[in-house]
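User: Could you go from structure to sequence for me? I need the amino acid at each position, not a summary. Structure tokens:
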């Protein structure tokens, strides 16, 4: 059985804990590898290695740090298909979707290559007599990233690229469910010229995470995963004097106004609701048609499309989506569908019984579509994270704005309309972090920031874009007076710039 260890000090090392997690092949349900779970002392060793390597890395000028990232992009591009195949073999998403996962990560690495410009500080000449005032951004030291299973290439890159560009050393704790791509990215970074020890990968579970959260040498923690863990990581990291940004779960609504292009709206719902088997934090899980007529037309067009979704193994290039990550997750998603039926929602399309010939033990599930879902139902309140779309009928636009605004999650939301006034009002008023207008998955590009509101995001700064540079640096502000500006004698009052 293939064993996945850790990546410490520029090389792959075997785990010593004797504790392992199973890495499944989601197509067959078989265990395909064992991943080592790090002990606190293994994590502590990785932190020590990172702390020793960080000052030299920080002393390298930003242009040269950027060149390492440029070379890394080059190496990832050369290995693009191989990485995407490895990714889909552990995650289960289709090859085409896995390529998107790598691509959206690389775009943040490209953004981080602008670090010489992004790190520029501020300078005020003549702020007082002979006095100049300036600020510089300095790295924090050793920082950590804890990432989820659903984007095993993209989210690690979102975390480590800006952090490394800023001159930090990095400890990555990827998801234990699909750790091979993060391990390979670490090797490619070293091949690109990153000094050994600047980026380390520790695999593991809560024990490894808790060590990162409590060790004083870790200065900042970036987390992405479910909301309960995000909140735990945020409060624990803050209690240990660390900077933290922790992104959680979601329940993304898509409002369909009566004037929307219905075919476009249906295409958008099919792709955003069922792509990647719904295992995306920006997946649309709630459709909100406004008015009975809109709802009836939408359902009539949507139901046959859900029924005809093509579900196949991750290797099937014709499949719309592949298997879910684990059998346990599949069972959880199915149990939510059972719950929806008990709660009184109308199950228009039932994909629970779906079986794929030749892959009977794989984690496959057909698309499910609920109508007449109401806000008091648990299937509306909770994140399901599967190929299940709920339709909540709104009587008017005001109700449609209220639904996502009052939901405890606030990651993404979309409105489909041809009316500019309505779209503008919605963008302004909706209480959600990322908004799409006739765009179902509004994941901002690398040079803007990504982050949800309410229980979808804990902390002040978003991921990538300018916020990432703020998060991974601390600002030092310098007041410098030159000898010609120095007045004689001691000053006993607070200096003011008269
Ligand atoms: P998860 O919360 O189970 O795991 C995330 C990370 O936390 C993993 O590295 C895991 O090992 C670790 N972890 C798990 N339990 C822990 C514990 N008790 N203590 C400490 N660490 C623990 O999430 P997941 O199932 O891997 O990912 C799916 C979730 O991530 C969904 O809720 C999805 O919405 C969310 N997500 C959010 C975003 C975003 O940007 N908001 C992006 C992608 C995924």
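Assistant: Here is the amino acid at each position, in order:
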């Amino acid at each position: 059985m293939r064993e996945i260890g850790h990546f410490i000090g520029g090389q792959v090392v075997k785990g010593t804990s004797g504790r392992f997690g199973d890495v499944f092949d989601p197509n067959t349900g078989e265990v395909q590898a064992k991943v080592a779970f790090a002990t606190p002392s293994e994590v502590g060793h990785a932190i020590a290695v990172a702390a020793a390597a960080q000052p030299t890395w920080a002393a390298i000028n930003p242009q040269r740090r950027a060149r390492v990232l440029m070379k890394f992009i080059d190496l990832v591009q050369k290995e693009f298909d191989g990485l995407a195949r490895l990714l889909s073999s552990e995650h289960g998403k289709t090859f085409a979707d896995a390529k998107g996962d790598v691509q959206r990560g690389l775009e943040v690495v490209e953004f981080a290559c602008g670090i010489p410009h992004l790190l520029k500080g501020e300078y005020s000449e003549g702020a007082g007599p002979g006095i100049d005032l300036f600020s510089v951004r300095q790295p924090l030291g050793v920082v950590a990233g804890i990432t989820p299973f659903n984007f095993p290439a993209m989210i690690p890159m979102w975390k480590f690229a800006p952090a490394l560009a800023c001159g930090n050393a990095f400890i990555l704790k990827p998801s234990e469910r699909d750790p091979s791509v993060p391990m390979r990215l670490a090797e490619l970074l070293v091949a690109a010229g990153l000094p050994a020890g600047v980026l380390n990968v520790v695999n593991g579970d809560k024990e490894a995470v808790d060590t990162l959260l409590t060790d004083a040498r870790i200065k900042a923690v970036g987390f992405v995963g479910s909301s309960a863990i995000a909140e735990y990581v945020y409060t624990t990291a803050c209690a240990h004097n660390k900077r933290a940004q922790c992104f959680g779960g979601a329940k993304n609504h898509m409002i369909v106004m009566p004037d929307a292009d219905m075919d476009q709206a249906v295409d958008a719902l099919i792709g955003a609701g069922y792509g990647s088997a719904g295992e995306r934090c920006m997946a649309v899980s709630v459709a909100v048609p406004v008015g009975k007529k809109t709802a009836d037309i939408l359902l009539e067009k949507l139901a046959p499309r859900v029924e005809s979704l093509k579900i196949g193994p991750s290797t099937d290039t014709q499949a719309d989506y592949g298997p879910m990550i684990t059998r346990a997750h599949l069972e959880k998603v199915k149990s939510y569908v059972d719950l929806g039926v008990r709660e009184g929602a109308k199950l228009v399309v039932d994909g629970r019984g779906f079986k794929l010939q030749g892959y009977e033990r794989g984690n496959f599930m057909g698309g499910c579509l609920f109508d007449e879902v109401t806000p008091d139902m648990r299937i509306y309140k909770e994140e399901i994270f599967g190929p299940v779309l709920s339709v909540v009928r709104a009587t008017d636009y005001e109700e449609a704005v209220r639904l996502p605004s009052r939901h405890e999650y606030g990651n993404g939301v979309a409105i489909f309309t041809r009316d500019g006034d309505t779209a503008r009002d919605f963008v302004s008023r909706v209480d959600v972090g990322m908004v799409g207008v006739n765009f179902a998955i509004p994941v901002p590009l690398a040079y803007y920031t990504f982050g949800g509101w309410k229980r979808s995001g804990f902390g002040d700064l978003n991921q990538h874009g300018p916020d990432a540079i703020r998060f991974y640096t601390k600002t030092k502000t310098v007041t410098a007076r030159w000898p010609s500006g120095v007045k004689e004698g001691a000053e006993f009052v607070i200096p003011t710039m008269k």
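One structural detail worth keeping in mind: The chain has two domains: 2-248+456-478, 252-437.
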